[in-house]
Amino acid sequence: MSRQRGGATLLAAAVLGLIAWLGVVTIQLAVAMDHRMALETAADAAALAAVGAAVEGADPVAAATRLASANGASLTTCRCPAYRGAGYEAAVVVSSVIELPLIGIRTIEAAASAEYAGALTADP
Questions:
Q1: Alpha carbon distance 66, 109 (integer Å)
Q2: Three-class SS string for the chain?
Q3: Alpha carbons within 13 A on the beta-carbon side of 111
Q4: Which of 7, 33, 75, 113 has its Cβ near the most Cβ atoms within 10 Å?
Q5: Does the pTM exceed 0.70?
Q6: Domain layout of the chain by residue ranges
Q7: How many angstroms separate the first and last alpha carbons of the chain?
Q8: Cα–Cα dist 97/80, whole Å
Q9: DSSP bridge pairs for 108
Q10: Do residues 5 and 73 touch, judged by C-beta distance below 8 A?
């Protein structure tokens, strides 16, 4: 009998284990990317809410906080000055915590800004 018998089985098991590990890592990266895209959507919504609230005379920070929270994020920063009747810009940063088995617990941030240039007028 040859002493190398079963070597192919060990190699096949190692290759299958590597393929399975790569599959798990790929799935976790896809979940992280999906979470990041959802966080970017939350940042966009919070920035738009801040601009809308400021133009209407309401508190832009409260509006941004509400929209960020409704989208599963926390408002980290809001550069939302008082509206003075001209153009207006709000910039926000939102964050969220994600936990993945191989990667661990991470805080992810996304930033967005929105602006209001003034009321549109219709041509006569």
A1: 17
A2: CCCCCCHHHHHHHHHHHHHHHHHHHHHHHHHHHHHHHHHHHHHHHHHHHHHHHHHCCCCHHHHHHHHHHHCCCEEEEEECCCCCCCCEEEEEEEEEEEEECCCEEEEEEEEEEEEECCCCCCCC
A3: 5
A4: 75
A5: yes
A6: 7-116
A7: 97
A8: 24
A9: 96
A10: no
Hey, what amino acid is at 22? Answer: L
Q: Which two tokens stand for residue 104?
A: 């661990």
Q: What is the mean pLDDT of residues 94-101?
A: 90
Q: Tokens in use for 101? A: 């088995």
- Structure tokens given for 106: 């991470």
Burial label for 69, CB within 10 Å (0-12, 13-18, 19+), is: middle
Look at residue 4 and tell me whether its pLDDT is greater than 70: no
Query: How is residue 9 written in tokens?
Result: 């089985």
State mean pLDDT over 84-103: 88
What tokens were used for 105?
A: 């617990």
